[in-house]
Amino acid sequence: MDTNPIPTLSMDPFSDAVLSDPYAFHGELRDAGPVVWLEHLNVYGMARFDEVRSSLLDHETFVSSRGVGVADFAKEEPWRPPSLLLEADPPLHDRTRGIMSAILAPARLRLQESLWRERAEELIDNLTEKDSFDAVTELSEVYPMRIFPDAVGLMDEGREHLLTYASAVFNAFGPRNKIFEEGNASSKEASAWVAEACKRENLKPGGWGQDVFAAADRGECTSDEAERLVRSMLSAGVDTTVNGIGHLVLALTEHPDEWEKLRAEPRLIRRAVDESIRWDSTVQTFFRTASHDTEVAGHLIPKDSKVLLFLAAANRDPRKWENPERFDLSRTTSGHVGFGAGIHQCLGQVIARLEAQMIIGALAKRCTRITRVAEPVRRLNNTLHALASLPVRVELA
Ligand code: 4IA
Fold first, then answer.
1. Nearest alpha carbon, ligand 1 atom 3
2. Single pTM value for the model
3. How many CB atoms lie within 10 A of CB 225?
4. Which of 44, 159, 319, 335 is deepest in the core (most CB within 10 A)?
5. Gap between the Cα atoms of 6 and 14, Å rounded
6. Rounded mean pLDDT of 128-149?
7. Whose CA is nearest to atom 6 of ligand 1?
8. Which CATH number fits domain 8-396: 1.10.3720.10, 1.20.1250.20, 1.10.630.10, 3.40.50.720?
């Protein structure tokens, strides 16, 4: 073991430069070796597809209960009570996951499909009355907010806090840098609103939120746990789909030939959604903590080490993908790690896919062309690859 020393990189993975354009840095990480030492943070890093995927699958070695951000919950107090899903290991994780999987089962989500399609078509109809619009502020930030909070059964007042809260959640996985501090200042009020919104008495009947409390009534969890599980929906369900849809539109504007293919063959819409998550992964990184000494590609990773997994880099690893920087609807895109892998793999992925499919389906019906008319503007976040603005022009069928 360790006949070759682990290469050291000095770059801060959470610097403004990397967060705004991570791909050159991802290449350096992958080329440096299967395991690297990130001296700026004192953590190990992995950016190649094989090692990232195997580490995600080995949840007993690389645990989540000590936090999936840079902070080790065994050494520092978490900024909020830990998630019972994301920041938990079996057996707790399996119990809570079981409750949520039943509530968000694909067969139950299909019940939402026609309403979500109607809402998507309505929004796209209105937007395409003008020949140009902002695909972020007028589309990707709008659509999930028109369907998701209603599906959960959230109270009407104060829903605008959801996006502020989610950005704070995702910033908090990173170091306490300037980006975190800025988000944290504005998130106090949002956190307080979220705490209220998750309470049984504030959730409307018929929504997923009340379904979680019904599980508590059946003795599957306590009501405190139910509140925390509703909080998971609010943490994970908004900023992710917002930026997923934003990047899907970006991918299609940058690859007009793929837009043509998709319009000619609507069954490609499903693949386009997954390929865009491979091509520009919304959740860029996650940490794990080594529960015991372990070996990865011949290198020792000592017990208690934090390990930073670069999901987005794995999804563009040329060792795994041909022409990885190309958004390509003819490739087999499944197997990417944009939704993670293993027991923690995204619980909401069916929801995310459905939302994105509805938007692209509605766009494809109406628009023959979609062109970017200005440079996209980024919103820097410690975990999410996020957009602030994406002005586009459309030509109607
Ligand atoms: C939670 C990975 C991301 C989408 C996520 C964020 C928060 C939570 C779960 C997943 O609070 O449970």
1. 236
2. 0.97
3. 18
4. 44
5. 21
6. 97
7. 236
8. 1.10.630.10
